[in-house]
Amino acid sequence: MSASIQKLKKMSTFALRGLKRSFLSRSFSFTQYRLIRNTIKDILKCKQSDATVNATGWVKTLQVHKNVTFIKVNDGSSLSSLQVIIPPELNNNEITFGSSVSVEGKMIESPGQGQDYELLAEKISVCGTCNPEEFPFQSRNKIPVEYVRDYLHLRPRTNFFSSLLRLRNATTNAIHKYFQENDFLFIHTPILTSNDCEGGGEVFSVEPHNKDLIPELSDSEEENKTPKLFFRNPANLTVSGQLHLEIITGAISRCYNFGPTFRADMSVDRTHLAEFYMVEAEMAFTKSLEDVLEVIESLVKFTIRELQNTCDDDLQFYYKYVAPKDQQKTVQTALDKAFTRIPYTDAVKILEKKNKKFEFKIRWGEDLKREHERYLVKYNNDIPVFVTDFPAAIKPFYARDNDDTQTVSSVDLLVPEVGELVGGTMREERYDVLKNKLQQHELLENLNWYLDLRKFGSVPHGGFGLGFERMLQFILGINNIRDTIPFPRSSKHCKL
Ligand code: 4AD
Ligand code: MG
C-alpha cells in the first residue's frame, strides 16, 4: 500500500515538474519571441510612442540626407516595410540596399507620409553586407519578370515575388479552410505510384540511379519473370491522385488532396509546368455532375473571397503593379456572377462559326485548344464557363458514360486568359461498363483493383482536379505560370 502511495507521489512530482517545465518553456519562448524576434508585421501594429523595438530584415530602400538617413526594412512578413530613421552618427556605408540589418530603437510618431509610426534607431548592426554594384536587383526599379526568373535563388528578394509567396500561402490556407469547413478529409495521396491515371503517357519513371540498390530477384521472382526493378513493377511520379482518392471515397464520402503533381509535358507555354500543385476532391453519393460543379464553383469563389479578406494588401499590390488593367474587375465578375454551363456540343457550334480566326479549326470530337477556351470565356463576357459532356474519346477511361454513349459526364472549367482551370468527371461506377472500358484501354490487368472498388458497395461518385498555379495566374493576373511557383520546372528547365 505504502509503496503504491509512494509511487503515486513520485509520479505526481514528475508530472508537476513536467508541467512546470512546459509552462516555463512556453512562457520563456513567448517572452523571447516578443522581445527579440518580433516580425515587421508585428512591429507595424505598434501604435505606442517610446516602445522599445528590435527589428530585423533586409534594406529595401535607402535615402541618405545630410542630417539623417531613412531606410525601409522588410523581413517578408508583410508587404509594408518599417521605416527606420538613422541619425548620422549611426550611419555607415555598409548599410546598403539589400544588406541585412538588426536595428534597436524606439517607436516614434512619424511626421512623414506613408506610416503612422517609425523606428528611431539607437543601435544598428549589419548582419550581411550586399554590394549594390553586384546585386542583380536595383532599388525601386521595376524589373522585368523574365530577368528576375534568371535569378531563382534571389527572386524572393523582389517585392513582387515575396508578395506572391504570401499570396500563395494564403491561397493554400483558403483551400484547406474550404474543404475542412465542408467535411472533406485531407488525404496524403502518394507521389510514387504504379498507375498513369490520365492515360496520357506523360509520366516520369522512377528507378534508383545506382543499379546496385535494386534488390536481387529471389528464385520465385526469377521463375515468375518478375522484372528486376526497385519496386518490381514500373513506378512513376504521380500525374494525379484521383484513383487513390477514389479508394478513400469508398469509405470516406468526402476527401481531397493537395500535392505536387508531375507531367512530362512538352508544351513550354505560359500555362504548363512539369511539376505543379493540384487540388483534387472526390465525393461519393453524388446525384449528378451538377454536384461536382457546385463544389468547384463554391471552392473558387470561397478562395477569392478569403484572399480578399486575409491578404488584400498583397492582392492590391498585384492589381496595381503586375496584373493587366482590368484584372480586379475580371476576378470580381467571377465572384459575383453564376458560372455558365454549356455542353461541349453547343460550345463547338459556337466555335465553328469562328473557325476562320482560329489557328486550329475545331470539329465535333476534337479537344478544345487554348484559343478555343479563351474565346468561349470572352464570348461569355469574361464569366467563367463550365463546358460539360465531352466526347468519350477525348476523356480518360474512368469518366462515366452518358446515356447517348457518345459523350461522358465530364467538365472543364474555363476562366479568363488562363483557359482550363479545373477538369473533372463523374466516375464510371457500374461494374460491367467499367470492365468493358478497361478492356478497351488494355488496362484491366493493371487496374483490377480499381474495378474491384465497383464490386463492394459501389456508389455514384465524382470529383475534379484544380491546377493551383493556374488558379494563382487567374486571380493575380500573372502572365506566365513560372512566376507563380518558387522553383518552376518545365521541359528544359529544372534549375536549383
Ligand atoms: O484535367 P486534368 O488532367 O485532370 C486530372 O488529372 C483529373 N484526374 C483530376 C481529377 O478529376 N481528380 O488536370 C486537372 C487540372 C487542369 O485543369 C489544370 O488546371 C491543371 O490540373 N494542370 C496543369 N497545371 C499546370 N501544368 C500542367 N502541365 C498541368 N496539367 C494539368
Ligand atoms: Mg484536363
From TrEMBL:
Instruction: Kindly give the InterPro entries that the UniProt entry links to this protein.
Output: Aa-tRNA-synt_II, aa-tRNA-synth_II, aa-tRNA-synth_II/BPL/LPL, Asn-tRNA-ligase, Asp/Asn-tRNA-synth_IIb, NA-bd_OB-fold, NA-bd_OB_tRNA
- Name the family the entry cites: Belongs to the class-II aminoacyl-tRNA synthetase family.
Superkingdom, natural source: Eukaryota
PROSITE patterns of this UniProt entry?
AA_TRNA_LIGASE_II
Q: Which GO terms describe its molecular function?
A: asparagine-tRNA ligase activity; ATP binding; nucleic acid binding
Source organism of the structure: Mytilus galloprovincialis (Mediterranean mussel)
One Pfam family from the record: tRNA_anti-codon
This chain belongs to the protein called asparagine--tRNA ligase
One GO term (biological process): asparaginyl-tRNA aminoacylation
Q: What EC number(s) would the UniProt record show?
A: 6.1.1.22
Example of a GO cellular component annotation carried by this entry: mitochondrion
List the keywords (alphabetical): Aminoacyl-tRNA synthetase, ATP-binding, Ligase, Nucleotide-binding, Protein biosynthesis
